[in-house]
Model the fold of this input.
Amino acid sequence: MTPQDASRETEKLCRMAPVIPVLVIDDVAHALPLARALVEGGLPVLEVTLRTPAALAAIAEMATVEGGVVGAGTLLTPKDVEAAKNAGARFGVSPGATDRLLDACEEADLPLLPGAATASEAMALLERGYSVQKFFPAEANGGAKALKAIGAPIPQVRFCPTGGVTLGNAGDYLGLSNVLCVGGSWVAPKDMLEAGDWAGITALAAEAAGLR
Ligand code: 3PG
Done:
């Protein structure tokens, strides 16, 4: 898969809903009800971070949920790419980008949303063909103001800002012309997962899905 093809795919995903939930799953038993709750609330594109031992099994389970598109986040190495692909991930997300990681995703046909935090990083990815990128860590990096400033000289790159994005500040990003959607973990809080409050998570998802 070329970087251009990957960007076309990730752009489609980013246009499916205003928010991509960033999920940290400790218990694989949470995977199915969580995915169903988020999809039901109107957030079909789900990023499961490869940060817990349960993540790959969770991706495999969630990939069976109708109406959902499940990807793997926190891709750092070619090994992660292989594992994500084998688990059934339909896309990948990374906090930054290395040539080895980009090569691996292109070879595995896994559309990658690669992370950039600076103008130079966004330019390097664009030079390779990635016109859709994750802006990370969004808030710590200057927030919507910084992303707007990056968009002035580099308007052809569109972003999914992630990291510190909340219901309260998501609108600041979504109002920018270079933002397709945002990523955030606020729609699946740990305490609600542990309590099995799936209706509560559907309500949070519906609220996020209504953002513009
Ligand atoms: C992460 O690093 O887990 C993602 O960027 C999500 O960040 P958040 O928890 O601040 O939404």
